[in-house]
Structures are given as C-alpha cells and as structure tokens.
Amino acid sequence: MNNTPMDGFSEYKSWISELKLRYQNQQIKAAMHVNSDMLLFYWNLGKDIAERQFANTYGSGFFKKLSADLLHEIPDAKGFSPNNLWYIKRFYDLYSPIVQKTPQLTGAWQNFPQLEGKLQAGATECALKYLFMIPWGHHKLIMDKCFSEPEKALFYIHKIVEYNWSRSVLMNFLDTDLYEREGKAITNFQASLPMPQGDLAQEITRDPYNFNFLKLENDYHEKELKDALIANITKFLLELGNGFAYLGKEYRLNVGETEQFLDLLFYNINLRCYVVVEVKTADFTPADLGQLGTYVVSVNHILKKPDDNPTLGILICKSKDNILAKYALESSNVPIGVSEYELSKLYPVDLKSSLPTIEEIERGLEESSEEPS
Questions:
Q1: CATH top-level class for 185-350?
Q2: Could you state, in order of their start, the residue ranges of all structural domains in the chain?
Q3: Which of 69, 109, 232, 253 has its CA 20 to 30 A from that of 300?
Q4: Quick check: 72 pLDDT over 60?
C-alpha cells in the first residue's frame, strides 16, 4: 500500500466525493428528522472546513469554489451557496468550544438520536440537545447576533424549542436583548416564597421591560402609558413573557368598606398564581411597595383559590435606585419585584398641533372636489 500523503488537490477532491455520499445517506422523509439530519450534516461539514483548512489553500474564493464543486456533484441539493457555506462554518465555530468542554458528548455527536440521553448535567448541556431541533433560518438569525457568545445563543435556542417561537418573535427578542434582561428584576422572591417557586418567579421577571412598541408624546402621563399598553395587549403580553393571561385593567376589588383598583391583573398559567402589575411613570419610591403590597395581599384573600400559589407583585417604574429598591424589599415579606421600563418612540408634544384636524381634512376635500379636473 502506498502511504505517500495525497497532495492538497487530491485530498480536496476526495473530500468532495465523501461529502456527496454523506449528504445522500442522510436524506430521510420525516420533516423533523430531515431538519435534524441536515443540521448534523452542516455541523460535520463546518467541522471539516474548520479542521481541513482548505481555505488557506484556496484563499478568499474558497467558499465560492466549494459551492460550485458541491453543486456540480449534487446538482439538486439546496443550501450550498457560498453565503450559506460561510454560515455553516460559523455554526461549528460558535458551538464547538462548548461541545469540546462537554464530556457527555464524546461519540454522541455522530449519532444525534442518542444525544438526549447523554445530556443531563446542567442547563447548558441540556440546551445543547436542542441544537439540531430548530430551523436553519432561526440559527442564522442567532449567529448574526451571538457569533462569539455560545451561552447566549443556547439561551435563545432553548426558548425557541420551549415556546415554539417563530422567526419574527425570535428577531424581536434578539433585538431587545432578552438574554441580558430576563430574570434581572430586583425582588425578594427567594426570601418570601418557598422553593422552587421563588426561583421560578424570578425567571419570569425582566429588567428593563421594553415598551418600544408604544408611540407616546414626550410629556405622556401615567394613564396614557397604561392605556397604550392595553391597546397593544398582544405585544405587552409577549414582553411580559410566556404564560401570562390578561384579566383586567383598573381591576376593582372590594376591600373592607373601600374599593381598590389594581393597575393591571394577570394570571400566570405556568406559575399558577395571580400577578399584580403596577406601572409608574415616576422614579421608584418605597411608598410604591406599600400600595402594591396591599393589592397583592388583597388578591390572596379575595381571588386566590386553594390550589393557586401566592400572588406576585411587579412594580414597573421609569427608573430606580437599585440599592434603595433592595433595602425597601428587605422590609417586606410580600413577594414583589421592581423593574424599570424602556420607551424610545417618543413624539414631540406639538405633533398634534402640526397635523390637520378632521374638519380641516373634510374642508380640503370639499374644496378640491370643486376645482376643475
């Protein structure tokens, strides 16, 4: 047998033939399996590109050459454009550092169906099993935003599988930096709630809440902000997170001989508890906790059923002093979280005055109809 190493050209041609066989062998009928097997093919192709270093031989035109050669060998194949091949290499580059640090994956990466049984060590490892379950279009969006942050990328992959996010929903949360915001509210949940509800309650919070879907004037008032949130309830619920059901605005409760009005009342199906949300357009003050705490306790007495978990309170304010909020929460045994909100789409106060009124528009239409055409 001739043990002389193949020259670069022969090795490259042999690799192209091997890729053709690999591609054909991994085509199956079931849609999910097609996606999984194709992503596994992409993973191994990305690994080959990274390790064989043909790009060093062929230079900047490598992906264009590889695309042409693969399409020549497999003319009916899709996904071998130069741009997609570049993403395929990024796919491997992004996740390979974590895979290489995960002993459970040794040998399993070549046999995808065995992955689920191999990954049981922790959140990161468990998220890795979803790597081949989401559509490639979702992967490309994630790679554009998380190229050098595999932990962040896996966070979004886990969310996609858990909540069946569409591409547009994923894009929204990538653009609003959900990874940096989720679970970040200042709360006393762990001190005031039993485990594991305290941790689960913390996970549903965000700080800041992103209200950029609203369109308000610069001098908006609290009522206008709340009205705008309810007018955009679908987007508001999406921002609050999964499992929230809207029950009412200015929800009336008869407490003793008085009527109390809760800003916003929700029920979280996942946590099986009521959630009272108060929205303040001013800075946080400790007095806000007293009001919200009263509402939370009232809901526990009046609405909460025996099978429900303790009610939560979430105070969303324009800004807060984090130290002051922490100290204020330590003084209360009512489970409350404090967050800020972001609002970027503000319009000038005099915008309305610069727009024509309905009467002016109608008068203009009448005048134009009287002019010769």
A1: alpha beta
A2: 8-175, 185-350
A3: 232
A4: yes
